[in-house]
């Protein structure tokens, strides 16, 4: 942690609203500030609901995902985005390295690989050789860029292994598949992940409607889409309409419809949990191989090597035919020996050793003590809280990313043995990375909210007029609904109180931490603030600003309406008064962000819902990391 002064009961604001102050300073020793902010941004998208649990298992890491994790569409979307940013981009990088080897564009490195491979094959030691190289890659981080020299993902053709111009029209980032420009490190990958999930949804809708391309142009036209109760009902109604259009008589006679729909939705939570477990395992392996302070990875890497080393010895000493015999028997026994396996399991009576599934999975054995990215973020934030110096959140984007090519150095593009990177000259590399105006404009796409596509100027103008009128009507309806909510809130309607102020512009200047946050509670507009006594830290709500840079309420008006000790919080849940569909429509109509809130449950089971918090994620993160609780993710 970066050093700073520390005094009892005083929280030091290191500049939560001064993003430029950290451009050249590391908030965490050994970790670049932009990398830290990338981790926090992704944490904010991933974690929605936590609950206090018993002390963490051996390894000291809490924030494990519960098998009873709540299902929600936004959570499923977050898990698919994690899958893209982790496994899918990692797989793409691996495919590109194989393509580079196969292309022979870097002849010296490929010749070395080829010689070692066929020599080991001739000596009958191919698998031990490959496993030995794997051990070297695990133990020696400096060996990895020699064997697999780096290259920007957007500049490598995954089919030919040669140089390719970035799909974004300029090389603005090195870790994204498109090479899109970004303001801060990691933003391009996050945007790609979001657009990847959106693209899947768009393809699914096109498949559902079964559009005939021969009639696509003649059938295009504007229309007001009616609000539907739920996405799956929309899909069902579209499918019924398609059946009727195809001449199916009384589609309701199809008795598979509801059954299949219910079966699929019942598997959504297990699917989401499985994706989460796979992504967690990927992140743990990544943090084992490239540990981030304060974690170290040497002992964990040795544990992994201890698993691989016996395999090397076995393949060297045991004849190949015996290995194939054992492998064949194992596969057959696993397929046909289910009754015998069940009896053996019952006979061992493993329950007497208090073993359960969570204690025997890979996260509690091979990867014990290795954090996921979420656990890493919580650890770093807790270190800041322990120093009375809450780490500042990532800055909000205020401008479009620069449309210029980044500089390539040896850490982002390199080759081994004197080869030219990607077999290209300096001029070819510079040309590929430089701006292609037409491609750059195409990569940004059209403003679908206004134009809806390109069909000629006349059609485009009509579409703009239609959507403009439609949006004006939606804006008027949203403002009317907000006014009605104010009236209903005064009459005591809890649902209206939860939405009150969520669509308002934050007060200027907006108090946004680390001690005080603008918020509403039960229809009252005010602030929540955190007391700074480490022995009895608490969250309070007041209708007046509690601080003017100090740590205690000022004046009679700042008397707290309620107080919750941080130690008594047992559940934190990100809350949206509008709900997903209403929030989306209101945000689009009003052209502004809809502020969300946090639900807090104490030990007595009492729930308090704080709404209209401009920096909801920052408040949530502070509440997660101030106390001594261990959390599990729901």
Automatic annotation (TrEMBL):
Keywords: Membrane, Transmembrane, Transmembrane helix. It comes from Plectosphaerella plurivora. Pfam families: DUF3292. It comes from the Eukaryota. Residues 386-462, 486-505 are annotated as: Disordered. Residues 396-412, 436-445, 452-461 have a biased composition (Basic and acidic residues). The chain crosses the membrane at residues 83-99, 119-139, 304-323. This is Uncharacterized protein.
